[in-house]
Amino acid sequence: QLQLVESGGDLVQPGGSLRLSCTASGVRMASYAIGWFRQAPGKEREGLSCVSGRGDSAYSTDSVKGRFTSSRDNGKNTVYLQMNSLKPEDTGVYYCAAKPEASPYCSRFARPELFATWGQGTQVTVSS
Questions:
Q1: Which residue, 97, 72, 89, is CA-closest to 19?
Q2: Alpha-carbon Rg of the chain, whole angstroms?
Q3: Less Cβ crowding at N or C end of the chain, within 10 Å?
Q4: How many beta carbons lie within 10 A of that of residue 71, not counting itself?
Q5: What is the largest CA-CA distance in the chain?
Q6: What is the DSSP string of 68-121?
Q7: pLDDT tens for residues 4-32?
């Protein structure tokens, strides 16, 4: 059974960078595309980025395009979210997730209701 654990959240100043990690256990990670999501206080969970199972395709939503990038190292069973030029509005709990069936593709990745396996989340705070 697939399990996901996020790490790397921290307090960072505006304009700074941070890299989050999502480590998988229980299954062959290359079978799963992994999505990244954010939930800010009082707001709904928002899709941000996705990397395909083989790592040959990565996508980001318009809200973070050019600043956030997903990548992965299947040898380490780990997916990364590189976040640059961080803004205060990027503050929130960040989650990685996988779909209920083993799908290596990022179709409709911005829709959290299509994902079934979630990590516990890691807090990112952007503030001076």
A1: 72
A2: 13
A3: N
A4: 14
A5: 41
A6: EEEEEEGGGTEEEEEE-S--GGG-EEEEEEE-SS-----TTTT-GGG--EE---
A7: 999 999 999 999 999 999 999 988 888 99
